[in-house]
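dude i think i finally got it to work??
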Amino acid sequence: MTIRPILIHPDPRLKTVADPVTEVTAELRKLADDMLETMYDAPGIGLAAPQIGVLQRLIVLDCVKEEGEDPRPIAMFNPEITWASEDVSTYEEGCLSIPDQFAEVDRPSEVEVRWMNLDGAIQEEHFKGLWATCVQHEIDHLNGKLFIDYLKPMRRQMITRKMQKLKRERTRA
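look at this
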């Protein structure tokens, strides 16, 4: 498995709608493995293919955080929300493409998601709590949307300027 570099906002690929996956190939399964390795290394709880510059509808997530609990990595091809609750939860979200920046975002507290798994089979699951927030955040990435797009313009611009500065500093390093 290979740890892939994660794109930092602003990058036009992060604002691009990803292409659907027509068939789960060995290459895409390897990509999912690389993405999980990259996510765990970062460390994070979710990663979308556009965040590593691959414009395909693939996300990975694992929201198990308790010590001693077994990890539960999930790879989803073409994930789509088929139902969302009217109840809303507020979580302080962050993003591996927007390091060290966090903000409260309101999202449906429960969702049902349908996706294609690593074998190309259709799966459906009901998510709530942190899992629901995470899967919605990652699906947003596939649609070219970042969590800061939910913020007021001034706050979004401030975070974007910080990221531009970070990218300049990394280029010089």
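The longest strand covers residues 74-84.
im so relieved honestly
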